[in-house]
């Protein structure tokens, strides 16, 4: 996924 989800969730999802 894009880093946009990471910002929305505020978690380290950017690594995924």
From TrEMBL:
It comes from the Eukaryota. This is Uncharacterized protein.
